Amino acid sequence: xxxxxxxxxxxxxxxxxxxxxxxxxxxxxxxxxxxxLVLTNAPVAMRMGEINKLAETTKAPVIPxxxxxxxxxxxxxxxxxxxFGGGIDFILHSVAMxxxxxxxxxxxxxxxxxxxxxxxxxxxxxxRVLRTAWDMDAxxxxxxxxxxxYIAAQRVFPDYNEMAxxxxxxxxxxxxxxxxxxxxxxxRINTVSQSPVKTTAGSGVKGFDGFLTYAEKMSPLGNASAxxxxxxxxxxxxxxxxxxxxxxxxxxxGFSFTGVTQAVIDQMEK
Length: 270
Ligand SMILES: NC(=O)c1ccc[n+]([C@@H]2O[C@H](COP(=O)([O-])OP(=O)(O)OC[C@H]3O[C@@H](n4cnc5c(N)ncnc54)[C@H](O)[C@@H]3O)[C@@H](O)[C@H]2O)c1
Description:
The protein has a single domain (10-269), classed as NAD(P)-binding Rossmann-like Domain (Rossmann fold), CATH 3.40.50. The chain is built from 11 helices and 6 strands. It has helices at residues 22-32, 43-46, 51-58, 70-84, 99-102, 112-136, 162-185, 200-203, 208-217, 226-237, 262-269, and strands at residues 10-14, 36-40, 88-93, 139-149, 188-194, 248-251. A 6-stranded parallel β-sheet has the order 2-1-3-4-5-6, sandwiched between helices. Helix 1 packs across helix 10. The structure holds nicotinamide-adenine-dinucleotide (NAD). Residues 15, 17, 21-23, 41-42, 45, 66-68, 94-97, 121, 148-150, 194, 196-197, 199-202 line the site of nicotinamide-adenine-dinucleotide (NAD).
């Protein structure tokens, strides 16, 4: 169902890799709600060509950009503004890469060069995106920027590894840039702390299936799906949430505030 919540709005969506991606689901919902879109991903991620299907459905151009490359980002914003014929109303930052996680390195033994890359791609990239928009004055008044995060930024989930630190930094960047951009142009910047979802990035975490079931049992509403997340992002891009900024917003079926559930107790007693 569409409510036309994003009618006339123009947005850039980072990170749609395949149809399971949270960014993919969100782009579809934004399109249904009347937004005009530009899609972007790392040039290497585009070689698979999957994103072209999404581009067709959402009638959006695809502009490649590596989020760690300032020239790519500048070109992306220039081309997006040219395509839209003006400024940008919303951005979804749905990007992450855990280099040490990928290479199977334990948290206590991380390689620091890889870790720097992890933090650059997963966290400081939000700063790079915002800085590019800031320098080019690319965002309209009341524009909304959303980054995706996970509760491992606040609580220990051992196998989330270095990504826990990366998410803590991502949330800090959203808060701190949110202050400056709020004052300058009423731009709001938030992170959505999402339930686990089986995507390419999600499945990279060791023991992901057990993790997913545990979260399901620990959440009074169950796990929030990627489509649920897309709906929530739509509300954050809409004018209905104009005064929400610098927040880390839990979108997790109640997981973050639950100590234990009967389902988990029953499991322990077996
Ligand atoms: N899946 C989950 O369980 C879950 C839970 C909470 C938060 N998140 C977060 O949601 C976001 C989206 O992840 P997803 O689960 O949809 O997985 P995904 O693998 O579909 O998306 C990750 C995206 O990051 C892109 N990317 C990686 N390096 C890049 C670079 N250098 N430049 C540009 N793009 C780059 C990938 O190409 C990919 O499209 C991530 O920030 C992730 O940490 C995921």
